[in-house]
Amino acid sequence: MLFNSLDFVVFLPLVFVLYWFVTKRSLRLQNILIVIASYVFYAWWDYRFLALIALSTIVDFFVAKQLNAARAKSTRKLLLLVSLIFNLGLLAFFKYFNFFIESWVDAWKTLGVDMHVSTLKIILPVGISFYTFQTLSYTIDVYRNKLKPTSSFIQFAAFVSFFPQLVAGPIERATKLLPQFSSKREFKTDFAMSGVYLIIWGLFKKVVIADNCAFFVNEIFSAPTDFSSVELILGAVLFGFQIYGDFSGYSDIAIGVARLFGFSLMTNFSFPYFSRDIAEFWRRWHISLSTWFRDYLYIPLGGSRGGKWNKVRNVFIVFLISGFWHGANWTFIAWGILHAILFMPLLLMDRNRKFIESTKVSLNQLPSIFVTFTLVTIAWVFFRADSIAIASQYIIDLLSFKSGNGFMFFKTSKKVLFSAIILFSIALLLIFEYKTIQKNKKEVQLTRATAIFIALVICFMGVFKNPAEFIYFQF
Length: 475
Prior knowledge:
The protein is mainly alpha-helical. It has 17 helices and no strands. The protein folds into 2 domains: 6-185, no CATH class; 191-276 and 355-474, no CATH class. The chain is 67% helix and 0% strand. It is globular, with a radius of gyration of 23 Å. The mean pLDDT is 90.
C-alpha cells in the first residue's frame, strides 16, 4: 500500500479510529491492531511474503529469549549465528541469488568459457532489507546485553511489522522503539498535529518534487546519449532531488503517521544537501542506515582504533557493503566505492568530524556546499544508471560540452509546465530547509498557515495519476 494512494487515504483514518476509540483501553488490543493493520498494509503488495515477516519475527523472538537464558559463551555465539544466518540468508537469497549467478557466468565468459546456468524467477519482497536489519539489531543488542528481550510476542511482532516504517524505514533500534509498545500511549494533540504537518511535508517532497522530477529523469536516463551536456547535468541534478524528495518524503510521512499513534521514530534525514563535506553528508543522509552500519559493522571491525590503514580498510568495507545493501547491481557497488574514495581525504587529514557540532551554515560556506552537492550528484549517476558502462558514458558526455537538438525542457508546453513546477518546488524546499537549519531544528516545522499553503501546492502541482512507488521499495 502506497502512502500516496487512495487506498492509504481510506486505510489510515480507519486504523486511527479503531486504535484510539475502540482499543484505547487495552494496550494489548492496540498492539494486536497494529500487527493486523501492518500485515494488511504489507499484504496489499503481495500477501505471500507475509510468511517471511512472520518467520523472521518467530525466529528472532525465540533466539533472543534463549540468548537471555544461556550463560555459556559458545551457546550465545551459536544462537546469534542462527539469527545472522537466517536473516542474512533470506536477504541473500531473495535479493542477491541471481546477481551472484549472473556475475559468475559473466566472469567465465570473459575467459572465453560459456556457462549455461539457470537463474530463478525471484520476486524481491518489499522492505526485506529494512525489516531484516531491524530484527538483527534486536538479537545483536540482546547478545551484547544492551537490551532485555521482551516476553510479549505481540509487542515484538508489532515492533517488527510496524506499518509506517515497515517497507522503507527508518530502520529503528529495538532499544528505542520496542519499549514504546510496552508503554501506554496517550493521544497528545500537539504531537499528533506535528505528525500531520510532517505527513504534508513528506507528501510535498514525494508527489510534487520527486514525481515531477521523474518526468525528466526517466526520459534522460533511458537514452542519455541523445542529450546535450547541459541536459545531462540537469538530469543528474534532478535525480538528486528526485531521490531525496522520494526517500526523505517517505521517512517524513512514516514519522508523521507514527506520531498519530503515539510513537516516536528517529530522524532519518537532516537536510543533506546543505552538507559542507562528504562526511557531513553521510551524517545527514539515511541516518538510520549509516548509524546501523557504524554500530554493527564499523565499530566491531575496529572502528577508528589502530592506525590509518585500519581506518581506511574499515571505511571502505562499510561503504562497499552499504552500496551492495542498496541493490544487486555493480552500479551500487561502484556508487559505494566512489563515496569511500571521496571520504578518504577527509579521513586521512582527520577532518571527517569537522562539522559534527554546528548545523548552521553561513554564506561563505556556500562554495563548500556546492562542491559537496556536485560530488554527490556525480555519484548519483552510478546509482541511477542501469550499468557501470552507461554511467561512465553519461559522465564522459556530461563533461564533453556536447551539444543537442534543442533544449528538451522547453520543447512542449507540458515540459515547460513541469519545469516551472520543479523549479518552484525545489526553491520552496531549499528555503524551508535553510530557515530550519539556521534555527538549529532537526525537522521542518510548519505552522498551520504554511501547512495549508503546502497542502494547496500538493493539490495543484502533485502527481496523483497512477501513483508512483517510492524508489527505496526496490531495496
